[in-house]
Write a structure and sequence with these properties.
Largest sheet: 7 strands, parallel
Number of domains: 2
Low-confidence stretches: 4-12
Number of helices: 11
Shape: elongated
Number of strands: 7
Helix content: 55-70%
Structural class: alpha/beta
CATH class of the largest domain: Alpha Beta
Strand order of the largest sheet: 3-2-1-6-4-7-5
CATH topology of the largest domain: Alpha/beta knot
Mean pLDDT: 87
Amino acid sequence: MTNAVLRYSALILKLKAVMLENIRIILVETSHTGNMGSTARAMKTMGLTNLYLVNPLVQPDSHAIALSAGASDVIGNATIVDSLDEALTGCELVIGTSARSRTLSWPMVEPRECGEHCVKTAKNSSVAIVFGRERVGLTNEELQKCNYHLYIPTNPEYGSLNLAMAVQLVSYEIRMAHLITEEKANAADHEAEYPPSEDMERFYQHLEQVLSHSGFIRKAHPGQIMNKLRRLYTRARPEIQELNILRGILTSVEKWAGKSSESGRK
């Protein structure tokens, strides 16, 4: 790789890391340190590290570290603030989780839509996903600070999700949206170069020559086999590098056949 390519690759990796760092997971008035640890674990497995704790009723302790299962850095670097407004400072997009039926008429999203919105916005701005108290969730006043309300469509007969489970589901959808965005970007970066028709014709001639010399087809009547092989490679549409590999294989077979012939004469 050239230095320019290496610098470009390093820049892309840095931008991807910044994008995920722009996504804040905010827990409001958490009452169990175990939920802090389990949340940190759920976040880190999906590449998220930016945890905010709003007026926690307990402080992170050894139990939180134990349940973080290797994500103690997320706990250690968590930002602790007194109010939700402080946690939302600088955020362009705010999504609040809501498990209860509300009288508020507000735009609703499910986890998949949430992931897509977050990844799109986090490219250039900060995003917050707000999770409420273990027992009562977010207040109406807190939900009114959000652009969207997030609803997780669980089993209507048993919709009990604990805090860390909800964070895991949402973090997973963010991860998937992030990976899809990466794949599209990588596909756009890779502009395939295809050989001109004359190069394909030379390949077909070379292929027919090798198959004829090997006895696989009769030189005077290549017929249907070559026609089918043409259709095969037309469908496959090999790129320039792939065609070069195919030509290299044919050349290698020719050399091997020549050596075998000489050995036979000896």
